[in-house]
Amino acid sequence: MNILMTGGGGYLGSIMAPELLNAGHHVTIVDNFMYDQSSLGHICAHPKLDLIRGDVRSERTMLPLLKKADTIIPLAALVGAPICNRDPVGAQSINHDSVLMLFKNLSRDQQVLMPTTNSAYGSGDKNNFCDENSPLTPISTYAQAKVEVEKALLERENAISFRLATVFGMSPRMRIDLLVNDFTYRAVNDRFVVLFEGHFKRNYIHIRDVTRAFLMGIERFDLMKGHAYNVGLSDANVSKLELCAAIKKQIPEFVYMEAPLGEDPDKRNYVVSNAKIEKAGFKPAFSLDDGIRELIKGYRMIRNTKYGNV
């Protein structure tokens, strides 16, 4: 297939793009490389890769590329509540407006596979449980935009929405701000973390399993289209305290404690069912423990500091 991927130089895309190429697809990536990353350097030699530095909000850039695409994977976004709060205009124009512009210019035959977020569930039901039929009660502006885009996406019918759990794992365009990645970094470098509302639960998924879900969606598109699927580890609906305990198993010196005062500004607290995608045939390959082990190795290479002599 001819696959058009926006934001392919980011955290997810720089893992996904090589696997799509390995599967035999032609991949065109549009990215503005806003973090000055060179995360796709290792695949530039591939003859089936095209790479465009551009802005996904520009119809002049996107329309010629859309005409050639069989499948579109829109990854370009300002991801997460903090960056969206810091740049609400950019968040609206990239996360919402640019994606609806893509949908408007697609034919009914073109396929779309898109990551959305299970943070849209907010806190789930009275037991904090949620599946794909649960009401969407997004808390952050990031999640609100994803809900609006997903509604338009599924109205197309020729589309799949993957409601991703909190992603973890190493990537060429690394994100240390994601919860497992963050706590493991603190354990490796600081040896301690202070938790706010440590009983809050959420679901997690390894970054390479995200790619595996998308590959399955491409292969089984006709069976899966028109639906949203939660994508997470069913044995990793864990609280922050449980996550820290899992990290401590591999870094015994790690100390964690709950703050007696204060609240977590991120009020997400839910237990997610992944039964629907599992019934479709998806089985994750990487556990939470696998990811922590991988991150510990990765953090021997990188330090999250720009200034300083150590």
Low-confidence stretches: none
**Structural domain tally:** 2
Strand order of the largest sheet: 3-2-1-4-5-7-11
**CA(first)-CA(last) distance:** 47 Å
Mean pLDDT: 94
Radius of gyration: 19 Å
CATH class of the largest domain: Alpha Beta
Number of separate helices = 11
Taking the sheet with the most strands, its summary is: 7 strands, parallel
Overall outline: globular
Structural class determined from secondary elements: alpha/beta
Order of helices and strands: EHEEHEHHEEHEEHEEHHEEHEEHH
Number of strands: 14
Helix content: 25-40%
CATH topology of the largest domain: Rossmann fold
Indicate the proportion of strand residues.
Answer: 15-25%
Per CATH, the architecture of the largest domain is 3-Layer(aba) Sandwich
Q: What's the CATH superfamily of the largest domain, by name? A: NAD(P)-binding Rossmann-like Domain
Can you describe this structure?
With 310 residues, the chain is α/β, with parallel strands linked by helices. The protein folds into 2 domains: 2-169 and 206-231, NAD(P)-binding Rossmann-like Domain (Rossmann fold, 3-Layer(aba) Sandwich), CATH 3.40.50.720; 179-202 and 235-273 and 285-298, UDP-galactose 4-epimerase, domain 1. 36% of the residues lie in helices and 20% in strands. It has helices at 13-22, 59-68, 81-86, 88-104, 141-155, 179-189, 207-219, 221-224, 240-250, 275-279, 288-298, and strands at 2-6, 26-31, 49-53, 71-74, 111-117, 129-130, 159-164, 166-168, 192-195, 201-206, 227-231, 237-239, 255-258, 271-272. The chain has a 7-stranded parallel sheet, with helices on both faces. It has a 3-stranded mixed sheet with strand order 8-10-12. Strand 1, helix 1 and strand 2 form a beta-alpha-beta unit. The longest helix has 17 residues, at 88-104.
